[in-house]
Amino acid sequence: MLLGLASFSFGMITAVASQIPNCDPRQVPHEVDGHIYANDDHTILATLRGAESRILVKSDEISPIMQQAIVSIEDKRFYEHHGVDVRGIARAVWADVAHKSVVQGGSTITQQLVKNSCVTTARTISRKLKEAALAWQLEQHWTKLRILTGYLNTIYFGNGAYGVQRAAQTYFNTTAARLTLAQAALLAGIPADPSRYDPVTNPKAARDRRLEVLQAMFAQGEITLPDMQRAAREPLPHAANVHLPGIEGPAPFFVNYAKQQLIEKYGTRKVFGGGLNVQTTIDLRLQKLARHAIQSVLREPNGPSAALVAVRPRTGEILAMYGGDNFRQSQFNLAVQGERQPGSSFKPFVLATALKQGISPSTTFASKPVSIFIGDKYWPVHNYENDYIGSGDLTTATAVSDNSIFAQLTQLVGPANVAKTAHQLGITRHLNPYFAIGLGADDVSPLEMARAFSTFANDGRRVDGSVFGNRPRAIARISNATGKLVDDNRPVNHAALTRDEDALLTSILEGVVRSGTGKAAALPDRVVAGKTGTTENYGDAWFVGYTPQLATAVWVGYPNRLRPMLTEYHGEPVAGGTFPAEIWHAFTQQALAGTSAESFPGYSYGYTTSKRVVWRDGRLRLDNGNCRNTALVTYFAGHGPSRTADCKRNEVEIPRVVGMTLARAKLRLAGQPLNANVVYKPAQPKQRLDLVLDQFPRRGRASSYDTITLVLAKPLHGVVPHLIGLSLPQARARLRSRGLVPGIARFADGRGGHVLAQMPVPGVAAAPGMQIKLVVGHG
Known about the structure:
The protein is α+β, with helices and mostly antiparallel strands. Helices cover 32% and strands 19% of the residues. It has 22 helices and 27 strands. The chain has a five-stranded mixed β-sheet with strand order 2-1-3-11-12, covered by helices on one side. The chain has a five-stranded antiparallel β-sheet with strand order 5-4-16-15-14. Strands 18-17-19 form a three-stranded antiparallel β-sheet, with no helix packed on it. β14 (529-534) and β15 (540-546) form a beta hairpin.
């Protein structure tokens, strides 16, 4: 079989080779640098480097340890095969035949060099066969060292570094000839998946991958155990030092965000060196204003940091993105990757859900400490500083950010519906549909919040891009090296709220800025709507607001850990209405300077009616006069539940008592209070007689003192007698008198001739001829 497989593979490769032209990997595919531009389409933010950024080096300019590392992890039989590893190819072909779309590995270093230089990247069997044939041809003309050098000069090492020389410079500020064992092992592990093994964004995965390379080198005898252990302890390169020259432009965090979208859409090879010219949406004037606004408010060098994202509502364009204080020190983008609880700035999503269900803002709730039953426990809710307004409608509750009222509103509209509304508005990450969602317990990013509030500013219509799907528009259009349009990422509208719902919501959020917790964000002669957010213990502070022309989210906190900001605001705690609102005000006032003030649209609603409702079996129902825990809700005409609940007078839950003893079951029922009626069914042999086997009704609700029927077992042939302590003759006589058969299970230490234990135990149902096994003492 092996001989046949080898012969078939060789013949197939030879046949394919005869049909394709010769390939010279020295001719690296011509690559053209692309560029990322600001929204003016001429200011370059970054260069998408291609071959011009690759520095070709000779074999003797690459350290031997680097050559050993790449061979050990990529192709350990490199020096043994002739360009094609028949076993690997056979495995890959079999996987392709068996799984169709799943293409397995099996490529040698020679094949990978050929793939990078001479064939397409199409994931097909044909491509693999052509690749194998060309690799076999190449091995007839090139030495192994030349092939390995060509491979190391072409592969991508992540972070824009192509070829081993550029990688050595990018990660370690050294040359390929001077790489150490630890450095070589790290670099050798990256090409398999540059994003996954990036030591900047995924240090744990990069460290694990480096260890995998070291272990492979040790297993193949390239290094000693002490060498491996020493190299594994070496620190990874510091994130601030990993960069190509000149990568920092005026908006580095935004550029990285745009690059990620490009890579996901077009792939690494087309993005870097593919000649793409990308016009983004970033406005460098607003980007500069964002930095100045943050620096003018947060002046303490060791104080909290901030993130800011500004979006144009009508087009969904990201106009400014401030993701951190120093891109060189940390490339972690607080505006996109920063996931923090939004606190009360999430409450507008609850309010929007209520308006979608036709609930009028005039609906009133009691403002007081409440405990909401969430299935298996009670969730206590309180206001900050235990400050309660007695009672208030939804407009007032939003302005003063009343937790108690919004917790009750979340329960009324349903947490899952709040999550659905948030996703429709522009939140993209998973949200847990629990009651705490209404108070902002789920982590979100400033980018998501800015986008969702931009939907409020756009008459309730979320704007996506036509090319990149459900995300804000960071990229406007893409052209190739000749100027031909590749993709035009046009705005696409998706209705999340009706115009009236959105306009009413906006009018309520205007009150937050006009007279509520967000007064510091107010702008002279301009309408502003927004919401503050402050998490428990003051660990995160937000202000998210909008005008008709601009929606902006501001987050303030400590980026590396959740640290309470109890004194940072002039000796007082940092809340959403302090630093975040002040930053928002400073930025938006300058951003809109010179533009005409616009007004928010009005709304029109008909009459309202009040209905007393209750949650019943997962649905909102009208109260039939017997329900508990009801709420009086004011609905707009044509809204609200139409079906009536089936609540009972003095209603109680029916507890499940199956499996309890009769005494305990009666006690549990009496506590509701409910009565018990016992009925019997024939017992099975060995069945206990004191346990409840079933109940009717089994679940649901009943009126107080209703009767619950309990089912117990009743023996038809008596019960197993108690025999422990009797002499063996006495036990046998008692069993025989009841038609039971005695048997000796075993003898054990104990009182001689007396029963020490029995099986089954006393008191269970007996059956004619049932054998009772005895443990008898022989002491």
